[in-house]
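Q: I'm writing up a methods section and want to include an example of the input and output format. Could you take the sequence below and give the corresponding predicted structure tokens, formatted cleanly so I can copy it straight into the document?
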Amino acid sequence: MTGFLYLLSRSNYLLFHSLIEHACVIVFMSMFLLVWNARDYLRSGFLLQIGLASLPVAVLDWVHSMSYYGMPVFGSLDQNPATSLWIQARFIQASSILLGVVFHDRTIRAGRHLAFWSLLGIAFLGSTWLGVFPACYRPGEGLTPFKIGAELFICAEFVAALVLLRMNRASFDPQLLGCKTAFLVAAVLSEVSFCLYFDVYGVFNAVGHLLKAAACFLLYRAIVTIGLRRPYALLFREMKVREEALQKTLEGILPICSSCKKIRDDHGDWKPLESYIQSRTNAEFSHGICPDCMERLYPGLGKRG
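A: Here is the clean output for your methods example:
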């Protein structure tokens, strides 16, 4: 399949480009619809961030495809608008993934985050059409320093997300983790390829789109396929992990001092009961004094009240 697509890029680049971009748009829209309809059950900021940001990414990628140099949809455009739209879509995608990994264990408000990513996408789209977005490609000169710098920044976001993802791998479904890791690697290689081309119909541009197609397939595998075939395992994984952690914390024999009531932890240290429980659960303490201790410590004070 990869060989066929590459040969197609050498014979009819616009068809090759349209096939890949529209396939990716379908992936992003599918992921958005899955996450949006499951938003009341998802407690993972990771899936929510990526899914919600997929809507503006899909729109920007579709407009990028329709405005590509040589496409007759929006008239005679040069190479810059489509190149700018590409950068904007990848920036939103990379930023949402990085934020999703950073805040993977936090509950987010889906409506607000969808509004944020959508407004950012609208702002990017408007700035491109108004001609105020920094130039990314100059006909006859090639890629601008801004475009190359933006690609490197996006690569850095993907790499940072990959490092954090591996550091927090225990929090993610194993199959999801593997696919997301492969997706991030393919995304980085794709962005590197898009730093090297001069001709928008050239080899490096084609290789970059092939890598993007591979990345989108991995993203489809990670989110849509796993999510649709194993919805409960994906949507309620976090609940299961918390339940197992809670059971592990509260089960078993706790060595407690019969005098001061301190508890010995796994490292042999004796800790107060409150700090031991707080370090292993979400419980919090508010201190007061019971009637028996009131009478023992302050005899007669309770009765005068």
